[in-house]
Amino acid sequence: MEEIFPNVFSERKELFTKNLVPGTSVYGEKLLDHEGIELRQWDQYRSKLAAAIKNGLSELPIKPGSVVLYLGAAEGTTISHVSDIVGGKGIVIGVDISERVMRKFIMVCEQRKNIVPILADANRPWTYRDYFAGGQISVLYQDVSQKNQAQIFLKNSEYFLKKGGYGMLAIKAKSISQEKPVNDIFESETAKLNEQFNVLQKINLKPFEKDHEMVFCRKKE
Length: 221
Description:
seven-stranded mixed β-sheet
């Protein structure tokens, strides 16, 4: 077992995070003891962030103590691992527009006190800016199925992400266009970030996710 990033471990083909809530799983994942620390298995076929790590993410900007805005929280699978990573001194603000998934997500939040759930449209960041009380986030993470994925990311960056802060954008090509070549979509969406961000790495998520790319970037000073 090797700790590859703070609170993230790897053994053979499997990833794990240090469990913030020992004895509790979120989606039926395996729990195991490693030198007195409980770890949760992190399934790269169910998490685009885990897939990016498996496919060579050079740096994980989400660290213990980070303040993360997570757009597209869904039922809480990946965000629960982000919760593990930031730990008790960090905070994760999870936004999702679906009332159905929010009900399940809130159950995760009840066990994990470092997650704040927000039922809102990520296209309209001004509707939830009061949750930030004038503060800024250190990491913006986005995984949403909308045509204007880069635009949503940029709007939220303008409102909430500090200069020098990091972004991670999971581009879902088929949510943008069914006709255009996938690589053209990746290039087009990434190019939209160039005014605000320096792109540090682009990671194709095959074989874990089809027609997906993770863009790792840093907001310009």
